[in-house]
């Protein structure tokens, strides 16, 4: 895939051409093929990233609809909207959708779109693999929903505890569907992690040392390392479960020598880092937005980076706090209490640094900043209830009750969804070239903030009043009806606020005010190119000599001059510079592949193969495996020419 | 509407362990959380809204020093608060996991999908745990099938029943009363309707109850009850046990002393004639997915078996 | 929209939502509908009957009791009026010998209240 040019970075000797002609040539080289086939074959990170974000948001809406129906069912005691079988599928699908199909993928997708732009690259390191990651994710999620609509959706909870999820107590295909389709999301996440890590280490604009990387890029990099260490465990666990169910192994069956708790250890060793996979990129969004809308760099860059890294390491040492009610030895549990409390420290440091930044800067109350304010307030509440459940005795009171439901929705909605909406309002102009409407954005924010608090705050009380999780109904005599009705009312508000957002998007796509390159006056490189960016991102690879590249007027002034000179334009093919991992010195020119049909084909064949395995047509499944091998050969046979 | 239990809020504890947790852990943590949130919100509000001069020097070293000092102080305070909370947690944790002592009463609680089997030595009952006030009771937690969790909500924290693992949960009721508990680990279709009652009574009253539970079922005294026993033996004995009769089924709860219990179907319905009739005839409408099938009975048989069950005190 | 219009809409909504326990067209002397609603729940009537407004009353063993005020017969045996209904609730076997509906030991006063509630179901 790569080709090294000896000596100069400015391409083979040629007669100087006008900058217009150079840009036209870049456009011709990088422009995607038109039509549906072109779209299916695209390997452009922006095209993949955008559809990835949209797909993840569709899953968010589906998960939200599941939640809305659940809240309708729980609004009154003994309601009859959903019977127990349907409700159990709904809450399983809600958790699985939000955690596996929305929260991690949307963060990965934002990274795939933004990271190359922020580091001055033209694409991710492995564009075809990137496309494959998206298609695998889409097909896996679509397959799960197809099964759900066929009444074969999983119903053992998003964390699928054995023995309930074992063959004896869940004899139908539902749990098998779960175990197999989450594998698709794991593959997609691992692909995105590999892309981010290699792209960040190898494709930065020359001059961008690690210390000059934007905080969002750091957040994505740290998160990607976490993915590499966390995802294999859920893959292992789900495959063990699939094997116990399909070929009668005994990993988890105590009667035949297996261990029920083994599942919980394996799952939560992945499951706890999973929430930090979701949180870390969101913290990166917040840093980008706070800097722009306080008109100064985020205070304490080294502390911010170290906090991200500390959170990542600590995040792997907390998993047993999900098992405090299983009767593990008290001494061991205390270790996890200490770690679970300690992780509040790096998060706290980040919040203190942001508040300091706001204090020292000059805030502009745009909608992105409003959502960041909402993030701080909601996430801190979630963090405080988190310190409470970190304590073993207290957790043994509230574990598996609505108190915990309140806690994790506060940290997840506060820590991920608020920053995500902030990010949507912030980067929508860059992606589409138009601004989202501010008045509608304010309605969206206030209704969402009010709705989230109305829905989830009463749940703290409900849990302490005895309401357990995962119940399809409750008796009127429990007295839980009033707070549940209030929570359901809050959920309706959330739905209205999201509808307002969708209206805002639809209207702004057609009639929003034009954004220009840099409507906000921001400091990162994506704002130094047009909105939307051209297919090649930058006509000339930007020169970087400071951490706030777009605020560095000297560097940006040299870009047009370097474009004239043909310095780092690389217009003779799909070319992008390769740089050293730490110091960002250019050391090679990399040739990127063109569009390819093989990623989508391989993803489709893999999905078919899985469907055949689930349906027990093992010969057809083997045929799909052989076909996949053939597709892989074709994939690698069409490598880009040396430039 | 008056429920058949008295209390089920963890914030109004009736058990010794839970009182300790609420007083020495929950209350300080809640106060600390409220204070910290107010501080953070206040700091954020001040940072956003403070009056600013028209133009401030971007790199004022004095201001940078002040920011470093403030962030460091805030971090140090965070560490200090967390250490204090950790200390509280460890001390309460040690108090609540202290060994129960030799005079503790041991009760085996086995979770089934979706009811509770309760054993005091040779005495078997279901869905209702009687305990003497003021004496430590150790619940030996077992599972017949999947993971359940015993949560005596206002008496003690919860602990899971895990197949292949022997957990123990201590509780000591501080006052008499009827206290609701709930299964707290998703265990399938009817996890939502798997409750239990803890009846705390004076020690003498408890001993009388236990003695009564040891006795076999009294033989039916009149024709209606005798007819009912015949219906029971043909329609119910495959799954239920009534000690002293040929009925020895183990799939469902032991019914030897059913009439003395306050609820049926694991805390789902009050134990009244109307509910008993409806439950026997059509359990699937009340608790869909439960393993008890509908038992359609001719009206005369229905009245008889209900009358018989009402004699099982 | 204006304040006044908003208030009016809320008022209409409130009236429509509140239209559940209005005065019975057939009052039962000595019967209190809200006490009757509670008694229907407490005595377990819902385990066999589906009764609108009574939480958890979803039973299919006996006939549903929706629109009870408009039904012509009780148990297909007698005209649906207050006296027969109260008697039926107290001692079903007196109205229909051999009926599956058990005698729940309900006093006359309690039966009047339960009948009063049933007659709010139009």
What does this structure look like?
The complex is a heterotrimer of chains A (about 650), B (about 325) and C (about 120). A three-stranded antiparallel β-sheet of chain A has the order 1-3-2, with no helix packed on it. Chain A has helices at about 20-30, 35-40, 45-75, 85-120, 125-150, 175-200, 215-245, 260-295, 300-315, 330-340, 345-360, 365-390, 390-400, 400-430, 440-465, 480-510, 555-565, 600-615, 620-635, and strands spanning about 1-5, 575-580, 585-590. Chain A has about 650 residues and is an all-alpha fold. Chain B folds into three domains: about 15-50 and about 60-95, no CATH class; about 105-215, Immunoglobulin-like; about 225-310, Cupredoxins -  blue copper proteins (Immunoglobulin-like, Sandwich), CATH 2.60.40.420. Chain B has helices at about 15-50, 60-95, 205-215, 225-235, 275-280, 285, 300-310; strands at about 105-110, 115-120, 125, 130, 135-145, 150, 160, 165-170, 175-185, 195-200, 265, 270. In chain B, strands 3-2-1-5-8 form a five-stranded mixed β-sheet. Chain B has a five-stranded mixed β-sheet with strand order 4-10-9-6-7, covered by helices on one side. In chain B, strands 11-12 form a two-stranded antiparallel ribbon. In chain B, helix 1 runs antiparallel to helix 2, helix 4 crosses helix 7 and helix 5 (about 275-280) crosses helix 7 (about 300-310). With about 120 residues, chain C is mainly α. Chain C is about 40% helix and about 5% strand. Chain C contains five helices and two strands. In chain C, strand 1 and strand 2 (about 80) form a beta hairpin. The mean pLDDT of chain C is about 85. The chains are: A mainly alpha (about 650), B alpha+beta (about 325), C mainly alpha (about 120). Chains in contact: A-B, A-C, B-C. At the A-B interface, helix 4, helix 10, helix 11, helix 12 and helix 13 of A face helix 1, helix 2 and strand 9 of B.
Short description, anyone?
The complex is a heterotrimer of chains A (643), B (313) and C (122). With 643 residues, chain A is mostly helical. Helix content of chain A is 65%, strand content 2%.
